[in-house]
């Protein structure tokens, strides 16, 4: 379960993982990996961009949650987070593409090797609640990537999609209840 901050916590957890595993090789400094739109990447070598949030129907919870003896809480909203990873290189033109391929290759390797984030890999409310977040490559077609890559005058860059989830966002709706304290059975004939 998580507070409304879990979306930001997943991004921070992914960022932490990539920064720890991708520096100093192939990216020289952790600050060169960041959360940013591919159109606003600044001086980043690798951007992680949350482009969509969808309800995770397969993981949806429907049971109310007991909160003490007199209250129940509505089930959380369960979502999957869709990210786009895009590599950028500051190398000279002759080696720029190969450098970007190395950066994306390492990012794919890191996310594959750490496909379930738990424990100290998580930050914020995710870590506090002992949650797990799965990371799976999203098989985006070239056409889907091109359609999604709609950033005005920014030319398309090689990118790879990932889905992180399921992530639970707690409901704030709570209902008061009364416990059954006595039974009354009557048999009529």
Please give a structural write-up.
This protein is of the alpha+beta class. The chain has one domain. It has four helices and nine strands; from the N terminus they run H-E-E-E-E-E-H-E-H-E-H-E-E. It has helices at 6-22, 93-113, 125-129, 142-148; strands at residues 33-35, 46-55, 65-66, 71-73, 77-87, 116-118, 132-138, 159-169, 174-176. The chain has a six-stranded mixed beta sheet. Strand 3 (65-66) and strand 4 (71-73) form a beta hairpin. Helix 1 (6-22) packs across helix 2. The protein is elongated and about 90 Å long. The termini are far apart.
Number of helices: 4
| Class from helix and strand fractions | alpha+beta
- How many discrete domains? 1
Number of strands: 9
């Amino acid at each position: 379960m998580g507070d409304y901050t879990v979306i930001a916590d997943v991004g921070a957890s992914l960022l932490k993982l990539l920064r720890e595993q991708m520096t100093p090789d192939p990216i020289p400094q952790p600050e060169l990996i960041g959360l940013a739109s591919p159109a606003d990447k600044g001086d980043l070598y690798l951007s992680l961009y949350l482009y969509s949030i969808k309800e995770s129907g397969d993981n949806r919870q429907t049971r109310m949650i007991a909160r003490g003896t007199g209250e129940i809480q509505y089930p959380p909203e369960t979502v999957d987070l869709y990210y786009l990873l895009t590599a950028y290189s500051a190398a000279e033109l002759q080696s720029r593409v190969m450098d970007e391929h190395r950066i994306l290759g390492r990012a794919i390797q890191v996310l594959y090797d750490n496909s379930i984030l738990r424990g100290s890999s998580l930050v914020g409310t995710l870590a506090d609640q002992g949650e797990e977040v799965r990371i799976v490559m999203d098989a985006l077609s070239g056409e889907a990537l091109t359609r999604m890559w709609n950033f005005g005058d920014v030319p398309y860059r090689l990118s790879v999609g990932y889905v992180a989830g399921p992530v639970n966002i707690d409901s704030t709706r709570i209902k008061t209840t009364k416990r059954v304290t006595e039974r009354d059975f009557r048999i009529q004939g």
